[in-house]
Amino acid sequence: MRISPFALGCLICSALAVGIGEAGDVRRGWLKVDHTSLRDEAGEVEIHAVSIDEYRHTFRLLVADSLEFRLSDLDKERCENLASNSANAEELKARCLSEFAFANKRSGFGSGALFLSDYYRRTNASLVVSGGEMAIGSYSIPLPAGLVQVDGQVLTPLSDPSILDGVVCLDGPRMGIILAAEFSEELSADCLQTGPILIRFQEISPRLEAAEAFGLYVPARHTFVCVRGNGIVLGISEPVGLLRLANLLVTLDCDDAMRLSSDPIAGVYATGFQSGNEALPVHNAIGVFSDADAIAGP
Amino acid sequence: MDKPVGPKKTTSFGDFLGKVKEELFGKIAAGILLGAGAVLVLVWGWFQGFAGSQLESLVIAEMNKPDSRIMKIIEAKISKSVPNFETEIGKASINLVRAEIASGFGDKVGDLTAGRFILSENSPAQTIYLYAPEGHKVILHAKIRNLSDGDRIVIIAPNSNNIVMANEGLFQEDITRILSNTPSSATVNRVMNLSPEQGQFRNFYPLRFQLSVAESRGDASTELEYLAVVTPAISVLK
Questions:
Q1: Average pLDDT of A229-243?
Q2: Cross-chain residue pair B208–A139, CB shorter than 8 Å
Q3: Is B123 touching A (CB cutoff 8 A)?
Q4: Which of A5, B81, B104, B169 is spaced 20 to 30 Å from B49 by Cα?
Q5: What pLDDT was estimated at residue A202?
């Protein structure tokens, strides 16, 4: 069999690419970001999006204030060593970690918000998307503007549903959008309040048209979630108005869709892809984990 | 015998010499006055410059010296184990630094806030508090050590305005602009364990320094020493 030099070159390049990918990040899953131009009467808008198979991935709300981001490697190592010879190692380790976290917080350590790339680097997430609004005038110290709930525990309460009208809830392999007005704290999932809802039951939210008429939504990059019959789409748009974004997302067959964040904090970070200027740190991000690599926290 | 009548050479010469002397004396006097005036103007100008525009560069030059008096005071008086300057030790040290600088610069300097902290991946953010009344200017002098290529420290004001510090070494910037359009009071109960009502201070700004690393470096850390000089904008600055 004769192999052309071109084919041989491609083969070597592919092998190198796979090798580098594996050597650089062995445990991290990989998600392909598609770059699609969606078209309407006004022209084309580029969307960078990932279609996620729910059976092979899990979702988790990443919170900068949580234990996993408040502890140093040294703290974790100390607690490992302390608990290693004990009969109830897990319990002792958990107590040790929580005490270190408490002490760190008292000392003024801990962040309250991380840059999106930090969420990506410090977890095994295949992809992270910025989500949630920051309270006005709160970037220092950063505070979320709406509900943040992790494992059923409310970290910050629900804010006015007429302003942030949606809540995205993540529960292992499932993700769904509910109205903020219908949110119940009995849900044991990770939930994040943001908005506005773009599409509800395959219909564009009527609030968008009214808001657009008042000039509330200026063109900007937006991150969004789209829930559809065959999985979840997470992505970021190039600068576009929200009503137009909703119209474009209808073409992706979204049953429900919601904006997660906008400039200056809109961003998506994955292996080989980064969008957003990372001008500011964010309090929350949504992490997508390849099933085998999903981390359980400290 | 009468002496011949004619021009008295000696007298004329004397007159000439007298005139020359008079003119010379006048010129010398004028020169001295002119010179003194010029020196006065120069000294006054230099003094004005010193008190005004040179203040910033003097402070940063002082910080940059290997045996910097300011840095020595900061380093000597502040325990390295105290990451946050809002402590009794910190306040006492700030007072010492203020007294030292005030002795050199007179009353041209307003409030001073100084300190040192370490940022790392595990503790990437630190918030400092600045008291900056309306009409005042805030100049931030900072010395950054161990900041790798691609890493940056972002200074974030409450209104999300921000400034990026991307290089090691000395940093000097007028940060008044990032404090504008911010709420005029800040709640500091998270730091000082005060109730929200007790913790409200007008013209008190929390300023957040956050490290963003390009690549993970384990436990490597970036050190930042800072001196924020709040000055009355009218009398001191350009």
A1: 92
A2: yes
A3: yes
A4: B169
A5: 92
- Residues, chain B: 238
Q: Do A137 and B182 touch (CB under 8 A)?
A: yes
- What is the distance between the alpha carbons of residues A133 and A284, in angstroms, rounded to a whole number? 9
Q: Is the dihedral of CA A140, A144, A149, A153 positive or negative?
A: positive
Which residue from A139, A114, A283 is spatially nearest to B158, judged by alpha carbons?
Answer: A139
Tokens of B228: 């924020």
CA distance A72 to A50: 32
Q: How many CB atoms lie within 10 A of CB A251?
A: 11
CB contact under 8 A, B158 and A140: yes
Give CA torsion, residues B184, B190, B191, B193, to 10 deg.
Answer: 110
Of A170-174, A208-212, B209-213, where does mean pLDDT reach its minimum? Answer: A208-212
Q: Which residues of B touch A117 (CB under 8 A)?
A: 212
Establish whether this prediction's ipTM goes over 0.85. Answer: no
Helix H or strand E encompassing B92: helix B88-105
Contacts of B120 in chain A (CB under 8 A): 72
Picking from A73, A137, A142, the nearest residue to B122 by CB comes out as A73
Return the pLDDT at B177.
84
Of A76, A129, A120, the C-alpha closest to A101 is: A76
Contact flag B219-A73 (C-beta cutoff 8 Å): yes
Q: Do B206 and A108 touch (CB under 8 A)?
A: no
